Amino acid sequence: MRRVTVRPGGRGPGSWRAGRGRGLLAWGLWGAAELVVTLGLVLLLLVVHQLWWTNREARQEAGRTVQALQREWGPPPSAVPSGAPSGEPVVPEPLPSATGAGTTRGSEAPAARQSQSHSRSQSQSHDQAYAVLRIPRIALTAPVAEGTSKGGVLDRGYVGHYTRTAQAGRAGNFALAGHRNTHGEPFRRLDRLRRGDRITVETRDAVYTYTVDKSLARTAPSDSGVIAPVPRSNITTSAGYSEPGYYLTLTTCTPEFSSRYRLVVWGKLTAMRPR
Question: Using CA of residue 105, residue 108, residue 110, residue 113, what is the dihedral sign?
Fold first, then answer.
């Protein structure tokens, strides 16, 4: 019978297998650590892209668009139109009594009739900016384009016009949407608006002034009543209006960095200056 002698300090078969196991474990841990670091860097780059780069790119494009519109239109009117009292803007006539959400043919105010042909032509130009929205309270100047698609409108830093709502200055509800976070985030500070704040919408033909009147801090994305011709929440039925008028609706996601709910701000048309 052969005798196996194990010398002191030598390795037997069990020691070799244990050493190999420890090596494989170390290799696995090292690979997992590299994978975690790589994933962390990728996630960091995605966050930087979303929170910084998309804002930078969208704001630059939106700024260039506003400048291009201003060069095309010329400066906004500073003088009072003939026939208006000195220092007083032109205010649309009150709406006649009407049933339902909209107005009947021929019931539009002069300001609405002046912009009707322009509104019709612009409503066919999707993705193209045709107005400039200004909100001094939150230092916002942003182009307005037709439609609310992300790629064509909102992700470019634009404010989007809900296509089935009224145009600026017309009877009904001029409803707009904008990002609250990323891609220029024009409506980031929409929650800071207060009753009485001034909002202007400038087009090729006129400058319309709306005054903030009401807000709804939170509602569901499916609450279509907030952009109806007579805006009124279908969920919080006490929020909104009951009579036809000249309304402005601003909508955005809430809370920040979430699209779970919608924040809504309403205003009323209080003045118009034709070009």
Answer: negative
Instruction: With a cut of 70, say whether residue 221 has pLDDT above it.
Output: yes
The catalytic position among 156, 161, 180, 262 is 262
Global confidence as pTM: 0.72
pLDDT in tens, 83-141: 444 344 455 655 543 333 333 333 333 333 344 434 444 444 566 999 999 999 999 99
170: annotated active-site residue: no
Q: Note whether residue 15 is domain-resident.
A: no
49 in active site: no
**CATH classification at residue 165:** 2.40.260.10
Catalytic residue among 118, 156, 161, 179: 179
Residues whose CB falls within 8 Å of the CB of residue 146, separated by 6 or more in sequence, listed in order: 122, 123, 124, 125, 126, 127, 128, 130, 153, 160, 161, 163
